[in-house]
Write a structure and sequence with these properties.
The protein is α/β, with parallel strands linked by helices and 323 residues long. It has helices spanning 15-23, 37-42, 55-63, 66-70, 75-83, 90-104, 121-127, 140-147, 157-178, 188-193, 195-205, 249-252, 255-271, 283-313; strands at 5-8, 28-29, 48-49, 52-53, 109-113, 132-137, 183-187. The chain has a domain at 5-27 and 108-245: Rossmann fold. Strand 3 and strand 4 (52-53) form a beta hairpin. It starts with a strand and ends in a 10-residue tail after the last helix. 38% of the residues are buried.
Length: 323
């Protein structure tokens, strides 16, 4: 069986557009975001029965997640396939969900596009030892502008800078253990400026023959699946042909906001080769960035502590070592 691959990165970096391009390939199915792998892995001990995995219970919980529901495939064939397996592993039960989606669309290979999995690469690479990882990276200032247009995630430029730095750094930190055979970085800017060249290189990386239908993904997009229940088109641009300049911090972001972003995440911008803004961050920008980073880090630690406490009360697996 062909190895799966995972598209990861900070949110609002163009991963939905890339998913639609890849999903337009006649051999590859890339459903909407999964999100259920790390949470269910943390609960894995709940599915242990006399030293064996209760695959039926795990599969039923996967089929009951809202993200599986968004794939709009019948769950019964998936559940039947699980019952036919002899002592499947956690990874096999999860993989069968993706394969059920692929088979429903007449395809043989699967991939997962869930940006936040950039923080779970180590776990995913152990569950699927042959899996490959595509880290999609976009200029963080354009990411910040995009976040400010949606009702979730960061609400300020500094919050977006902190999240972008955290997520992109997590992906790059995992690259060393994986090596170039299993990890590649793809720039959003390259994808929109030269989609054919970028996709040809990506296909070679994941051992998938290039197919020109990926360049015409907008023709086959099911727009209804791109919007949440509210119907607001948060991914409307993903359903159109790629074009540079969808967001441009140079013209849409104030010099002050650009300086604040650079004060918090400027080193990573420079490491990635993105140009500096017109104004160097001054003392005020650096002070705001330092305070924001401290507050946001403390908030995240408190949130993780609350989750761990809830898992402990529920008799779950406890704080995981790897995810």
């Amino acid at each position: 069986m062909d190895a799966p691959f995972f598209v990861v990165g900070c949110g609002r970096s163009g991963s939905t557009m890339l998913r639609l391009m890849l999903d337009a390939h006649p051999d590859l199915a890339v459903p909407g975001e999964s999100h259920f792998i790390p949470p269910l892995w943390r609960r894995r001990r709940e599915y242990e029965r006399d030293g064996r995995l209760d695959a039926d219970a795990l599969a039923a919980d996967i089929a009951g997640t809202p993200h599986f529901g968004h794939w709009k495939i019948p769950p019964e064939p998936y559940l039947e396939a699980i019952r036919a397996l002899d002592r499947p592993s956690f990874a096999e039960v999860v993989e069968r969900a993706f394969l059920a989606n692929a088979e429903n669309h007449g395809k043989r290979r699967w991939a997962d596009k869930t940006p936040i999995h950039v923080r779970h690469i180590e776990l995913l690479s152990r569950l699927w030892p042959s899996a490959r990882f595509v880290h999609l990276i976009r200029d963080g200032r354009d990411v910040a502008l995009s976040y400010l247009t949606v009702p979730w995630g960061p609400r300020t430029v500094l919050e977006a800078a902190w999240k972008w730095r955290r997520d992109v750094s997590a992906g790059r930190a995992a690259s060393g253990a994986l090596g170039p055979e299993r990890y590649v970085e793809l720039r959003y800017e390259r994808l929109v400026e030269d989609p054919r060249g970028a996709l040809e290189e990506l296909c070679a990386f994941v051992d998938l023959p290039f197919d020109a239908r990926m360049l015409d993904h907008a023709r086959e997009v099911d727009r209804e699946r791109l919007a949440p229940a509210s119907g607001l088109p948060y991914h409307a641009r993903a359903a159109t042909p790629p074009a540079a300049g969808a967001r441009d911090w140079r013209t849409e972001m104030s010099e002050g906001d650009a300086a604040d972003f650079e004060a918090l995440a400027g080193r990573l911008l420079a490491d990635l080769g993105y140009p500096p803004g017109p104004r160097r961050p001054g003392l005020e920008s650096r002070a705001r960035a330092s305070l924001a980073a401290a507050v946001l880090a403390a908030r995240e630690r408190a949130g993780e502590a609350r989750k761990a406490l809830r898992r402990g009360r529920a008799g779950g697996a406890g704080p995981p070592r790897d995810d």
